[in-house]
Each structure stands twice: as structure tokens, then as C-alpha cells.
Design goal:
InterPro entries: Hexapep, LbH_gamma_CA-like, Transf_Hexapept/Carb_Anhydrase, Trimer_LpxA-like_sf. By secondary structure, this protein is mainly beta. The protein is about 15% helix and about 40% strand. Strands 1, 2, 4, 6, 8, 9, 11, 12, 14, 15, 17 and 18 form a 12-stranded parallel sheet that branches. An 8-stranded mixed sheet has the order 3-5-7-10-13-16-19-20. The radius of gyration is 15 Å and the shape is globular.
């Protein structure tokens, strides 16, 4: 794993976090217990903080960043962020799901048990409410998620906790 200090700030990482080879975690970044940062991710908390909650996973090739002097990025607990996503100066509540290849722009919020579909572009300031599915470029409300879909998303996030544990051993 590669942790880099920047401007006097150094990443704070719980003891049981999995950070895969090639990932870069820079500056004012905190990562909660049981979280996982997968291959070739970049979490760049150089000019504002990034917080990643417990048991969240940030999958391969994802970039997480902030905006200079205005806002950091907050990723709650038990979040699932798919491969090659771009997460920029936004807030993901606990149990949020960001599909692979999606972009979440400045000031956006994805609430608990909400989902941004793969390949979507969530433009600045949009809010995906609890239980909603948004999709498209630009993303728009598509429909409500079913209880089965919400449970499947939660199970997928839990599956990454288990997989990260296997990698750690």
C-alpha cells in the first residue's frame, strides 16, 4: 500500500483496512474499519479532507478527490463504489451505491440505499434520495428500488468486506 503525506496531513487508516497494490492514498484521508481500497485507486485529500466510512469499498481504478478550500468528500459506511468511478467533492450516505464507471460531481449527495447506475453522470448539486435509482448522462430519476434490490446492494457491499479480509490474509 502507498500512503503519502501532504501539507502536514497523513492518511489515518484503521488497522483492518485493505489497500491493494497500486492504490495511492494522499494527505488528509481517513479510512474506517473494514473498508477496502482496491487496485489502482487514487484518494487525493491534498487540499481538503476525504473520509471513508467503515466497511465501504472503493473498487479498482476509482478516483476520489475534493475541491480546493471549499469542500471535502464524505463516503459513509457500507458504501459500494464500482470500478473506475469518479467521486468528486460530494457526499455518499451510509449504504449508498455508485455503479461502475459513474461520475459523481461537486455538491452531489447520494442518500442511504440509493443507487447511481453504471456509467451515469450525476451533475453538480443533484441529490439521489433514499431508495431511488438514477441513470443516464446526465443522470435522472429512473424509478424506486425494490426491497430485494436494496438488500442485494447491501449484500454486495458486505461481500467486499469478506473479500478484502481474504486479501489481507
Amino acid at each position: 500500500m502507498t500512503l503519502h503525506g501532504f501539507g502536514g496531513a497523513y492518511p489515518q487508516v484503521a488497522d483492518d483496512v485493505f489497500i491493494a497494490a497500486g492504490a495511492q492514498v494522499i494527505g488528509n484521508v481517513s479510512i474506517g474499519a473494514g473498508a477496502s481500497i482496491w487496485f489502482n485507486c487514487v484518494l487525493r485529500g491534498d487540499v481538503m479532507p476525504i473520509a471513508v466510512g467503515a466497511r465501504s469499498n472503493i473498487q479498482d481504478g476509482t478516483v476520489v478527490h475534493v475541491s480546493r478550500g471549499t469542500h471535502g468528500t464524505v463516503i459513509g459506511s457500507d458504501c459500494l463504489i464500482g470500478h473506475m468511478a469518479m467521486i468528486h467533492r460530494c457526499t455518499l450516505h451510509d449504504h449508498a451505491f455508485v455503479g461502475l464507471g459513474s461520475i459523481v460531481m461537486d455538491g452531489c449527495v447520494i442518500e442511504s440505499d440509493a443507487m447511481l447506475a453504471a456509467g451515469s453522470l450525476l451533475t453538480p448539486g443533484k441529490v439521489v434520495r433514499t431508495g431511488e435509482l438514477w441513470t443516464g448522462r446526465p443522470a435522472a430519476f429512473a424509478r424506486r428500488l425494490s426491497p430485494i434490490e436494496i438488500e442485494r446492494n447491501r449484500s454486495a457491499a458486505a461481500g467486499y468486506v469478506e473479500l478484502a479480509s481474504l486479501y489481507r490474509t
